[in-house]
Structure formats: C-alpha cells, structure tokens
Amino acid sequence: MRKTIGIGVAGAGAIGIRGALSHLSLQDVKDYGVRLAAICDPVPGRAKAAAEKFGVTAYYESYEELLQDPNVDIVTLCTPIGLHYKQGVQAIEAGKHVHFNKTMTTRVEEADDIIRRAAENNIRVVASPGMMLRPENRKKRKLILEGELGQLGWAIAGTARGTVAFHFEEEFRTGENILTSVNPEWYFKKPGGGPMYDITSYMLHELTGILGPVQRVTALSGQAVPEVFYQGKRIAKEMDDSTILMLDFGSCLYAVVYTTIAGEITGWSPNIYGTHGALIGSKFGDTELKDPALTQPHVKGEHAHMREAHVFADIMQLVDWVRDGTPSIVTAEHARHVVDIIESGYRAAETGQTQQLCTTFEPLPLEQL
Ligand SMILES: NC(=O)c1ccc[n+]([C@@H]2O[C@H](COP(=O)([O-])OP(=O)(O)OC[C@H]3O[C@@H](n4cnc5c(N)ncnc54)[C@H](O)[C@@H]3O)[C@@H](O)[C@H]2O)c1
C-alpha cells in the first residue's frame, strides 16, 4: 500500500498559500496519499487562519514545534530566503526531507553544508525552481545537443523587476486580514533579499539547465533606488536592484543575465543564439516549443490552471523521491551552482575581478531529454 506522506509548510505568506496550500489541499493530492500535516508562522494567528482555510491538521507559531510533529515527513520552506540555510539544517537534524523555495541558500558554503548533512542523514533535498521539469526546456537542450543551433555564440536573459515592487501588488499584501497583509520587507534586506536571489534564480536555473555549468562570472552591480514604501512605511533597501552578470560557459560561449529597474527585453526565458539558429524564449525559429498539453509531472487538471504550479511540481518531486526512491532530476548540486553564480557575481562586482566558479553539476544527458 502507498505510504501517506505528511507535509509541513513553513511560512503562510504568498508562496506558502499560493504555491503549497492551494495545490496540496486539492482532492487529487489527497487521493495520492499526501496530507497537509502542519503549518507554522511566527505572526500570531496567521498559521491558525491558514490551517482553518485549507484544512491543515496542526498549526504552530514556531518552526521548532512543526519539526517536532511526527506527522510531518517533508518540510516545504516558504520562508524568506535568508532563513533557508538555518531552517534547512534544522529540518535535516529533525529527520525531515526538505523542499526549498528558491533560492536554496545565499552562500556556497551553506549549500555545501546542506548537501553534506542530507547525505549523512539519508535525507532528500529538492530546491526550486525545477526549470528542467518543463518539457520545453528539455526540448531546448535536446536541440542544442543534436547540433540544431550550430555552434553556440551567446545568450541573454533577465528581468526589469529591480525596483518596481511587484511583490507589493500580490493579493497577500493588499488586504487587511492576517493572510492578506503579509509584509514583504525581507525582499529588500540582507541576506537573501534582492532580485538576484528571488527572480534571477529562475533565469540562471533555466540557462544552466539548458547550456550546462558556468566556468567564470564577472559583473556590475549597484543600487539605483534606495528606498521603497509599503503601506506608507519606508523600507530602506540593503540589496542591489541593478546587476548585470556576464557568464563564461567555456568554448567562447557567453551569456548576459540582467536584473534592472527598467527595460526588460527578453522575458524570463533566455534567448540563445547559435550559428545555424536561435532559441527565442520558447520558440525555435517558427516552432513553438511550449505545448499546453505537456506539463511538468503532477501538473494536471486544476493544477495546470493555477498559479505557482511549478512549486507544486517541485514539492511532488520530493514526495515521489521519499516514497518510491525515485531521485528527482531537480538536484541540490544544480541549485548550489546557481547560488555560486549569484554569490560570485556580487563578489566580482565588488572587487572588479572576474571570478572562477568553485562548483559544478551534471546537466541532463541526451537520453533523459
Ligand atoms: N511571492 C512569490 O511570487 C514567490 C514565488 C515563488 C517563490 N517564492 C519564494 O518563496 C519564499 C517566500 O516568499 P513569499 O513571497 O511567500 O514571502 P512572504 O513574505 O509572503 O511570506 C513569508 C512568510 O514566512 C513567515 N516567516 C517568517 N519567519 C518565519 C519563520 N522563522 N518560520 C516560519 N515562517 C516564517 C512570515 O511571517 C511570512 O508569513 C522565498 O524564498 C521566495 O523567493 C516567492
């Protein structure tokens, strides 16, 4: 008989609700033997409100209590990025498998420690965003490996969300009750705030998932707008809002990855240019690679029409891995490499010196595409 898997959700903010609770409370997930075992949030009353709304068995105001709950097999960290390392270590020590909402950690040595501790304690780790779970991204890598683009020249990807406080417009920030007035201040603070860890993480996972690991990085970075206002309250920004990375993949293949305050030119998916053809977003020439009928694993029925389905898909990777021992293609080593690019990029900008990356990962081989 299929083992029931209990999920503990840490953080009842935007992604806790939209990515975890909204999806995991649906009937098909229950039928699959997955239970919302517990939720925690330190803001008084928030975990209780979320538990009542989504039918979660237990609620707590501290993460430590959630970790002590024997019904929790997997923890999904829906907390600010700066907390992920410490909370990941605590989960591993408590014997819980961990899903990290991007980004896994803020520093390579923290990611190393998570990977080492997980291996020592027989714990599974999946870190979002699992961009290569998207069928169109696997098609892109396949086209490249089969030589359809010719010799690769360069790529570009990025967003212009450096200052426009788009998180302020989320339905979880604009209301007045405990679930709709979640303060997004951490998005601007050290460590773990800023658009690089929050958004560029998507582009870096996709780009490296398709092209493979990066060897060197150089960058320019700064803060163009020093403050933002949330509900009339000033937030002094600590993280840069404008960063342009240049990545060296070897063999003269370079990429530009930007996060700026204006002028988004690519969309979230990269443009990748070769001597015989180019991938422009989700298109190869006139061919659209994205097929609405082909989704990430588990993203079926209602899930396919809901927001943050990719977060749900990543959590379900961990469920299947814990239950059947099927390892996910979404690896912690890939997530660590992205952390390395971001951390080394900031160091390159600060020192003016191109940085050699100290991590790598195995990109998907042709037979898995
Ligand atoms: N908002 C998005 O669009 C989005 C999308 C995908 C992934 N994410 C990722 O999800 C994570 C959370 O982002 P968010 O937008 O949901 O943030 P948020 O600010 O909306 O919610 C964070 C919640 O965590 C709670 N929290 C703070 N400290 C805690 C602790 N010690 N233990 C448990 N809970 C604690 C806060 O009270 C808050 O309710 C980040 O890693 C982010 O990058 C966000």
From TrEMBL:
Record flagged with keyword ATP-binding: no
Among Gene3D superfamilies, the record links this protein to:
Dihydrodipicolinate Reductase, domain 2, NAD(P)-binding Rossmann-like Domain
Give every GFO/IDH/MocA-like oxidoreductase domain span: 141-279
**UniProt key word Nuclease:** no
Molecular function terms, GO-annotated: nucleotide binding; oxidoreductase activity
Gfo/Idh/MocA-like oxidoreductase N-terminal domain segment(s): 6-125
Which SUPFAM superfamilies would you find in this protein's record? Glyceraldehyde-3-phosphate dehydrogenase-like, C-terminal domain, NAD(P)-binding Rossmann-fold domains
> What UniProt keywords are attached to this protein's entry?
Oxidoreductase
Protein name, UniProt field: Gfo/Idh/MocA family oxidoreductase
What's the source species' lineage? Bacteria, Bacillati, Bacillota, Bacilli, Bacillales
